Amino acid sequence: MRLLLFDIDGTLIRSVGVGKAAMVYAMEQVFGTAGPVDSYDMAGKTDPLIITDLMTAAGLALADIETGLPAVYELMAEKGRVLFTSDGIAPCTGVPELLAALAGHEDVLLGLLTGNINTTAPLKLAAAGIDPTLFRIGAYGSDAGDRNLLPALALERACQLTGHSFNGQNTVVIGDTPADIACARASGATAVAVATGRYSAGTLADYQPDYLLENLADTLAVLDILLGRAEA
Ligand SMILES: [Mg+2]
Asked: 89 in helix, strand or coil?
């Protein structure tokens, strides 16, 4: 059995900043500021890391930031339920076709490995027309601020769900940033980088993923890679 762990933003979906808007709203409500959000690069970072960086830059103490995180998460989901619609969020090229093709493979378990918190991740997917329940397990930003800790959690949850043993040998991490490649490495998983987010294929190549794709449009070729039928 193979475990495929998909990042969300820039990999499965693209959006016009509605995720950022929900986070800004929540931080302003809870902490009274969104910090230097307009000069901050969120790509590849977990939500708790982003919030902690921004609030630290705004002068808040770490203990106060941690205390406020649950309230921020709650407001992000509340705002997301309003803001996350098909007007602002769409699937990345080839994603609906790829997921439909993967649904026919019984020996494949689909999961999420994302910096999003566990309550906003399904909202974003649903807004893009992607059924969140296709992904039977997930590891989220709400689980850990350090993305490199998330693969081990995902493997453990996949094992608990299926009784099957998962490790790096039968696991693929698909993402759009150098941080996704690094977290695949942290678990010994195969790293598939896709240039549909903030980073160009040229930049991603510098981080030496096992596979590098411009997008996920070529369903058959992508299937070969994800199912371990392609030569690296
Ligand atoms: Mg991403």
From this structure: strand
pTM of the model: 0.96
Amino acid at site 45: K
Single-letter residue type at 17: G
Distance, CA 42 to ligand 1 centroid (Å)? Answer: 9
DSSP SS3 for 139: strand
Determine the distance separating the centroid of ligand 1 and the alpha carbon of 74, expressed in angstroms: 22
The DSSP output letter for 136 is -
pLDDT digits (tens, 9 = 90+) for 12-69: 999 999 999 999 999 999 999 999 999 999 999 999 999 999 999 999 999 999 999 9
Write the CATH number of the domain with boundaries 2-14+89-226.
3.40.50.1000
Q: How far is CA 215 from CA 44, 46, 154, 186, in A?
A: 17, 22, 24, 24
84 CA → ligand 1 middle, Å: 17
Instruction: Tell me, in angstroms, the distance from the centre of ligand 1 to residue 137's CA.
Output: 18
Give start-end residues of each CATH 3.40.50.1000 domain in the chain: 2-14+89-226
d(CA 200, ligand 1 centre) in Å? 13
Residue pair 181/204 in contact by the 8 Å Cβ criterion: yes
Q: Where in the chain is the domain with CATH 1.10.150.240?
A: 18-83
Note every long-range contact of 55-60, with CB atoms under 8 Å and residues 24 or more positions apart, other chains counting: 55/27, 55/31, 58/31, 58/33, 60/31
Q: Please give the CATH architecture assigned to the domain spanning 18-83.
A: Orthogonal Bundle (1.10)
Count CB neighbours of 92 within 10 A: 23
